[in-house]
Design brief:
The chain has about 160 residues and is an alpha+beta fold. It has a four-stranded antiparallel beta sheet, with helices on one face. A four-stranded antiparallel beta sheet has the order 8-9-10-11, with no helix packed on it. The protein has a three-stranded antiparallel beta sheet with strand order 1-4-5, with helices on one face. The chain has one domain. The termini are far apart. The protein contains two helices and eleven strands, in the order H-H-E-E-E-E-E-E-E-E-E-E-E.
Length: about 160
């Protein structure tokens, strides 16, 4: 009976573990290299302006993270090809102590400021007014802090 139970458990582990492993995101060595390579494969001619990648600690852990602004990409002569009325795509990457980075979030925003609030650095993201339940007017400012591996919204104005 014990061998039957152990055999069933082993079979379950063989079935479940690969699914868990595929659910995890792989670490990349450098977001700048990763993103540039992606767009060099997508575009016949890809140009990257200064500021395409900003390196700063966005989650207050002392490690330098990376933020990619796709609005500073020119693909086949078109600047910011994925930019629209909601802004441009920004990809946020966290660095881990073991080495490497993983993407924590992608946001369609007009831009962001990194500001100190109550002793912690937070992202003040400028977004389309609809994100603050408005149809027009000034951009919505969504303030978020990165806790662990999640964006936590602090306020919307």
């Amino acid at each position: 009976m014990k061998t039957l139970v152990l055999a069933v458990l082993n079979i379950l582990l063989l079935v479940i573990m690969p699914a868990v492993a595929f659910g995890q995101q792989s670490l990349i060595s450098d977001p700048e290299i990763y993103e540039k390579k992606h767009f060099q494969q997508q575009c016949k001619a890809a140009e990257f302006a200064d500021g395409f990648v900003t390196r700063q600690d966005i989650n207050n852990d002392g490690l330098i993270d990376a933020v990619v602004n796709e609005g500073l990409l020119t693909c086949d002569g078109q600047k910011g090809p994925q930019c629209n009325d909601d802004g441009c795509t920004y990809n946020f990457y966290l660095q881990v102590a073991e080495g490497g980075y993983f993407m924590i979030a992608t946001a369609q925003i007009y831009g962001y400021d990194f500001v100190q609030r109550f002793g912690n650095m937070v992202l003040a993201m400028k977004m389309h007014p609809r994100f603050c339940d408005r149809t027009e007017g000034d951009p919505c400012i969504v303030t978020a802090r990165v806790r662990g591996t999640k964006f936590v919204t602090i306020s919307k104005k």
